[in-house]
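Open question from group meeting: does this chain pack into something compact, or does most of it stay loose? Before anyone orders reagents, we agreed to write out a predicted structure and look at it together. Recording both the input and the output here so the notebook holds the full record.
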Amino acid sequence: MIRLGLTGGIGAGKSTVAKTFVERGAYIIDADKIAREVVEPGTEGLAELVEAFGTDILAADGSLDRPALAAKAFVDDESRKKLNSITHPRIGARTQELLDAAPEDAIVVQDIPLLVENHTAPFFHLVVIVHADADVRLHRLTTMRGLDEADARARIAAQATDEQRRSVADVWLDNSGTPDALAAAAAEVWDRRLVPFEANVRARRAAEPDPELVAAEPNPDGPSARLVNRLWAIAGERATAVDVVAVATVELRITARDDAAAGELTDLLAVGGFAPVEPGLHRSCDPGRPATVVVEKA
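Structure tokens returned:
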């Protein structure tokens, strides 16, 4: 199994990519859908929101009136924290339920609009960013979704910048063309990268790098900084340091806290996408991102 984080700015075309992945067999987890589910009529989540913010956040049919809730929940930090304390644990629990139910050979696609803003990129095997320039997204939002221009501009400005998205991107899908062109690009990512990556992780097998995929690296500084964050997410308290040994060849080193931690890291790195090739040495399972990870003891 591998987990893929899918995101992009509002109006970028993320839904087209998600649809393409689902058609090819993805196990989809939609963060927006879960956020709606946990506050549907009859749920404990909705009851707690009413208790915290009042009955006037309900529509006539008893469902949540989201604009009414927003008017109360986003007036100050205390109200925002109250909202998050009610919804976030339930969203997290439901997400984990869906992850636990995924097949062992699944390519799990987690569609998360605010993945970059929530700083969760390191917890995925791969992050796919769907990109379109701000003026293109503005046109789509005002003509296809019917948003007021000022509202559309405000929504775009409130999200992560292109630079912030690029810094966490393993795959950068440009959607300045047609939906068909974007779907074709997403299908190629699925076939050439995601399917082999998942099979390699399951087999604990290092990847044979695909030169074209490697050349498509979206970050001009390379993947090393992303991989440092990802290795910290995998190792956690078992590591005392994660360092870049060589940028050009993407060689990294984890300093394990002790012998027991070093032993545990063998399995954790394999599950996280770095197959053991000999004691203390791992290589990437991703055909689009060759990397070597050495585990040393403090």
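Observations to bring back to the group:
DSSP finds twelve helices and ten strands in the chain.
The mean pLDDT is 94.
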